Amino acid sequence: MKVLLIDPSLYTPPYDGALAEALTRRGHEVTLAGRARRGSDPPFGGEVRLLPLFYRDGERLLRYGRAAQVAKGFEHATGLGQLRRLVVAERPDVVHWQWPSLPWLDAAALQVLSRYAPQVVTVHDGRVFKTKRGLRRLQSAGWGRFVRAADAVIAHVASTRTALAGFGVAPERVVLVPHPIFARPAAEPAADARGRARPRLCVLFFGRLSRDKGIDVLATALERLPEAAHARLHVVVCGPALREDAGVAEAVGKLRRLRGVDLRLGFVPEAALDARLAKADLVVLPHREVDA
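The structure corresponding to this sequence follows.
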């Protein structure tokens, strides 16, 4: 079977790669349509046939901030046109949308592509476009059209199905596929140079440093701990920070000033994350609201 995956902005390269690799192992031919890869992107984690149909000029303008966003908005329509030509030429057996970028445009494209192949949408986050103010209101309306037009919708948890019902998606059209947990070999607990157990509790926060993931909640909680507690903790915070978010910048500033906090900003490769997890006594993920 020929499967076309669509992730225009490459929001989830590791997920795209894992899905493509799993489908390929089952004998399917998989192509991913997205933008060109950046040096800062996390790896796919496997061999992926990537066709960079989206944002060629926008990617070159990344350093110019808003100008790049405007260019990408115009280019999205061009990319969708190229996507239609690809579907007509290659005739995939199924088209699988990982993420929409501009839902009101993507909804129209999905309906056009449904003439040529069944359309499947994975909803990674049922809260996406939940805020209905300003531009988000337009995105929310497009998102509803987008998921309602799909032949099938994949969700990872039951709460996503409930959220989709609010957008008019019939529950029987939603397939629950639990998010996989990949097995890793167990690692021995770390010890100090003399072979003794570490005297301090190692606490790990990993992932994108953003307010929806509660990085400011973590910073405030650590700030309120008594000094004696800080002496017993080694807190590792690692992941890329949303620099344009003033709240995140404030939280990062708090973390920099706290005793016992090891701040590692930037993407963490999977092997390095495995090592971090093996050393951690406690993982903290104070998300405000999370779907899967």
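The mean pLDDT is 84.
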